[in-house]
Specification:
single chain; alpha/beta; 5-stranded parallel sheet; rRNA (pseudouridine-N3-)-methyltransferase activity; transferase; EC 2.1.1.177; Ribosomal RNA large subunit methyltransferase H; Alpha/beta_knot_MTases
Length: 159
């Protein structure tokens, strides 16, 4: 399976980079992992709703340019479905079995995802109703994808 993570913004914190490197290495035995970063747009402190929508749209266009036609797109969205780790593992397994072997996870910037990106998504997933920094969320997503592979292979780690 090919897993692509398309995210807004660069990872600056060393501890997050180290975690991402660790889970990327662990995942290399299960899938081909590609990470794509698009630049984040600066948001003024007192940005209007209109300005925030324009920023999300600009980031969204950059995201959409990175999505290939053959990708099954999972948008990380607060309005998406919530799953247990076991349900998430089953979903990834079913995607592979159904021929959707190119999966792209989309992580938006601090303002979230544009409506156009959400429309392109095949599925919307929510890990929590809490808000996480998008840099840290990439690490959380990688850990859950790794956990899913371990679950699907009946390998220890999950508990």
């Amino acid at each position: 399976m090919n897993i692509t993570i398309i995210s807004v913004g660069k990872i600056k914190e060393k501890y997050i980079k180290l975690g991402i490197e660790e889970f990327s290495k662990r995942l290399s035995r299960y899938c081909k992992l590609t990470m794509v970063e698009v630049p984040d747009e600066k948001t003024p402190d007192n940005a209007s709703e209109r300005e925030m929508e324009l920023i999300k749209d600009k980031e969204g266009k950059q995201i959409l340019n990175k999505i290939k036609d053959n990708m099954y797109v999972i948008a990380m969205d607060l309005q998406g479905d919530m799953k247990t780790s076991e349900q998430f593992a089953k979903q990834l397994s079913q995607l592979a079995l159904s021929g959707d072997s190119n999966v792209a996870f989309i992580i938006g910037g601090s303002l979230g995802l544009s409506d156009e990106v959400k429309k392109r998504a095949n599925y919307k997933l929510c890990f929590s109703k809490m808000t996480f920094p998008h840099q840290l969320f990439k690490l959380i997503l990688l850990e859950q994808v790794y956990r899913a592979y371990r679950i699907n292979n009946n390998e220890p780690y999950h508990k």
